[in-house]
From TrEMBL:
Coiled coil: none annotated. Pfam families: HTH_3 (PF01381), Peptidase_S24 (PF00717). One of its GO terms (molecular function) is DNA binding. This is XRE family transcriptional regulator. PANTHER family: LEXA REPRESSOR, LEXA REPRESSOR-RELATED. SMART domains: HTH_XRE (SM00530). Residues 11-65 form the HTH cro/C1-type domain.
Length: 208
């Protein structure tokens, strides 16, 4: 079982993997952003009575945050607890690439780890989102047309023919599509170069 600091580290890791901003996490658990920040900075002790709320916000079980293994040797009950998620193709983590929308294959995952909503996987190509998202990672996208500042989104641009995965930053009348890799430049979007957000990156996994 994890200690208090290890639980916080697990929460931070899960939030990062899911592209979840501090503001969004605070909203989901019904707490002030400053309070959640103090837990992350370890200036205040994490309240275990809020464990269930944080687990729900991160789409995991309280037992997972505590490090309690309910299913030894990765054995899970199969009945009604797996979901097939389609892989819709590739998305650029670098220069935009032609959008791919055909279903290549499906990935079967444990349903308890999934957020709500219409979900699909895209395969990251390139390293502009490294180290957050590595090249070749399978990125789980929840379909939605808006994301908060700082969240990672799958974006269609150039008349819905090119797709890219970037962090969103809104400033006045422009939108910045920001890479996490400093070797890449942001993409600047104005009213003359509209984009369409197709979903929010919520999780990813990659093969060794």
């Amino acid at each position: 079982m994890k200690n208090n600091r290890e639980i916080v580290d697990q929460i931070i890791l899960l939030a990062k993997q899911q592209g979840l901003s501090l503001s969004e996490l605070a909203r989901r658990v019904g707490m002030a952003k400053s309070a959640v920040s103090s837990y992350f900075n370890k200036t205040r002790e994490f309240p275990l009575n809020r464990l269930t709320a944080f687990a729900s916000a991160l789409n995991v079980s309280p037992e997972e945050l505590l490090g309690i293994d309910l299913y030894p040797q990765n054995v899970y009950p199969l009945s009604h607890q797996t979901t097939k998620i389609p892989i819709l193709g590739a998305i650029a983590c670098g220069a935009p690439i032609d959008a791919v929308e055909n279903v290549d294959e499906y990935i079967t995952v444990h349903s308890g780890t999934l957020p709500k909503g219409n979900l699909f996987y895209l395969v990251a190509k390139g390293d502009s989102m490294y180290p957050t998202i590595p090249d070749g990672a399978y990125v789980l996208i929840r379909e939605q047309s808006e994301v908060e500042d700082g969240e990672i989104a799958a974006v269609l641009l150039e008349n819905d023919t090119q797709a890219t995965l970037k962090r969103i930053k809104k400033e006045a009348d422009i939108v910045l599509l920001l890479p996490d890799n400093s070797s890449y430049d942001p993409i600047i979007i104005t009213k003359d170069t509209p984009v369409r957000i197709i979903g929010k990156a919520v999780q990813f996994f990659s093969n060794l």
